[in-house]
Amino acid sequence: MKNCIACGMPLENIEDIGIENGEDIFCKYCIRDDKSIKTCEEIFDGGVNFFLTTLPELDKSLAEKAVRKNMNLLPYWKGKDNECLKGEEASDEEFQMIMGRLG
Ligand SMILES: [Zn+2]
Q1: What is the pLDDT of residues 6-35, one digit of tens each?
Q2: For residues 55 and 83, is the Cβ–Cβ distance under 8 A?
Q3: How far is the CA of 6 from the centre of ligand 1 (A)?
Q4: Among 17, 46, 52, 102, which residue is least crowded by beta carbons within 10 Å?
Q5: pTM of the model as a whole
Q6: 59: CA distance to ligand 1 center in Å?
């Protein structure tokens, strides 16, 4: 299965795919209406909102740390100087706990 290279979302359904550019696939949430790729900040905020909407009991700072960890694991963001990806990341335990709750 393929994943969005910017947020890691699994792309099980064709309608979840926003743009396919050879090996580079972005989900529909990581692009704008004009098909341009969202900025790191926009994708980061979208990820935090997703966690807080799906898991309302989650602490906002923990959601931010988990999104930061997730995005920093993706090769797409490696070597790019993005302020929102600097700072504290969730621990492996915290990350596993959140991912487990997402089911
Ligand atoms: Zn995405």
Answers
A1: 999 999 999 999 999 888 999 999 999 999
A2: no
A3: 5
A4: 102
A5: 0.91
A6: 22
